[in-house]
């Protein structure tokens, strides 16, 4: 563990990725039909807390540590999950209904954001870059879903891959921190800044 500004610095990326893993796996299992839709309120709360709030908190800590990449990624993805699942909860509890097209701008913006994150995380590790490739893919699939294409099952498969990759990265990061092996089992960064 490092010290930054008098604070003991932990790797909060693993905390955020654990949250992403729980949210993405839960959502993925719903989308492929393993978890039934009659549990939609509980599912939405789990996704809101883990996919949203956990990532936001981890991102805020990363910002405090002056890690712009981690802080930006975690907070922005966290706010995405938070806003989407607050809207879903309002729909379930209050009976509101919004058209899919309403979500097209946010999904498209996050697809572009994730595309840029592929390049940026490609300077960190192969695993983190690969995770963002699948995140970009799920946003691309979601754009097509918002345009009324029936691809929910494929989004579910992608969410499961994202969840497993996030869990893998989080666990390996913890193991590496504990054993002192930096970057071990995460793969070398494919890109290098000149």
Question: Your description of this structure?
Answer:
The protein has 194 residues and is mostly helical. Helices cover 72% and strands 3% of the residues. A two-stranded antiparallel sheet has the order 1-2. Helix 3 runs antiparallel to helix 4 and helix 5 (126-146) packs antiparallel against helix 6 (152-179). The model has no long low-confidence stretch (mean pLDDT 93).
Looking at this protein, list some descriptive labels.
two-stranded antiparallel ribbon, mainly alpha, single chain, globular, 194 residues, 6 helices, 72% helix
Topology diagram in text:
Layout: E1 2-4, E2 7-9, H1 12-31, H2 40-64, H3 68-94, H4 104-121, H5 126-146, H6 152-179
Antiparallel strand pairs: 1-2
Helix pairs in contact: 1-2, 1-6, 2-3, 3-4, 4-5, 5-6
Tell me the quaternary state: single chain
| pLDDT averaged residue by residue | 93
Biggest beta sheet attributes: 2 strands, antiparallel
β-strand percent reads under 5%
Shape: globular
Residue windows where pLDDT falls under 50 for at least 5 positions: none
Number of helices: 6
Radius of gyration: 17 Å
Helical residue percent band = over 70%
Strand segment tally: 2
**CA distance, first residue to last residue:** 28 Å
Could you say which structural class the secondary elements and strand pairing correspond to? mainly alpha
Secondary-structure element string: EEHHHHHH
Strand order of the largest sheet: 1-2
Concise summary:
The protein has 194 residues and is mainly alpha-helical.
């Amino acid at each position: 563990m490092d010290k930054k500004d008098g604070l003991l610095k932990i790797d909060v990326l693993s905390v955020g990725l654990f949250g992403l893993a729980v949210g993405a796996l839960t959502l993925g299992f719903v989308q492929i039909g393993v978890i039934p839709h009659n549990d939609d309120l509980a599912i939405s709360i789990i996704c809101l807390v883990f996919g949203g709030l956990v990532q936001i908190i981890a991102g805020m800590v990363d910002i405090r540590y002056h890690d712009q990449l981690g802080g930006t990624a975690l907070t922005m993805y966290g706010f995405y999950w938070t806003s989407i699942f607050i809207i879903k909860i309002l729909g379930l509890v209050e009976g509101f209904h919004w058209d899919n097209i309403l979500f097209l701008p946010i999904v498209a913006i996050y697809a572009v954001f994730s595309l840029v994150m592929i390049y940026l995380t490609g300077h960190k590790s192969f695993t983190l870059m690969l995770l963002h490739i699948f995140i970009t893919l799920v946003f691309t699939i979601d754009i097509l879903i918002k345009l009324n294409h029936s691809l929910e099952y494929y989004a579910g498969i992608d969410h499961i891959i994202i969840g497993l990759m996030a869990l893998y990265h989080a666990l390996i990061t913890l193991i590496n921190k504990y054993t002192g092996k930096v970057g071990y089992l995460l793969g070398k960064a494919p890109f290098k800044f000149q």
